[in-house]
Design a protein that fits this description.
This protein is mainly α. Helix content is 71%, strand content 0%. It has 8 helices and no strands. Helix 3 packs across helix 6 (98-115) and helix 3 (35-62) runs antiparallel to helix 7 (120-134). It is flat.
């Protein structure tokens, strides 16, 4: 819904800003030179981010009495999306399209952490798989075949 509203606003105010979403992501371009290194880094980054956001922040606050885990999942997911502010470098004025997805991803990770009884390994694996999957696509396949 947020993305739909953003499309309407951008189309009305500055449709050219949507072209920024077509910009190549520098990390993904760099990954094409050594995709397996970046797959490994995907899991390392996932482990670090999940330890911080689900293990320390969400894990600490979800166990506090008197407040639903959903409240803490919401604000920690907002913080998670917020620390990815560097996406503004790549996507410029169109970067607000990225943040709802990051928020929902963070919330899904918090819900998984909650449903698994606080199993951080599951969430780390999901995060690493998500990041590694972003490295895929036609260019990555071509590079891995040596073309």
């Amino acid at each position: 819904l947020i993305s739909f509203v953003l499309v309407i606003v951008y189309t009305a105010l500055d449709p050219g800003a949507l072209d920024f979403l077509r910009r190549p992501n520098p990390v993904l371009q760099q990954a094409s030179t050594n995709p397996w290194l970046y797959v490994g880094l995907s899991f390392l980054v996932g482990a670090c981010e999940e330890t911080i956001f689900r293990g320390w922040l969400f894990g600490f606050w979800r166990d506090r009495p008197g407040t639903s885990w959903v409240v803490h999942a919401t604000w920690t997911s907002l913080v998670f999306a917020g620390v990815h502010v560097y996406y503004a470098q790549t996507y410029g004025p169109a970067s607000p399209f990225v943040y709802p997805t990051l928020f929902l991803l963070g919330f899904a990770f918090a819900a998984t952490y909650q449903a698994s009884g606080g199993n951080l390994v599951v969430v780390i694996a999901l995060h690493g798989l998500n990041d590694a999957a972003a490295l895929g696509g036609p260019d990555a396949i071509t590079v891995s075949r040596g073309a």
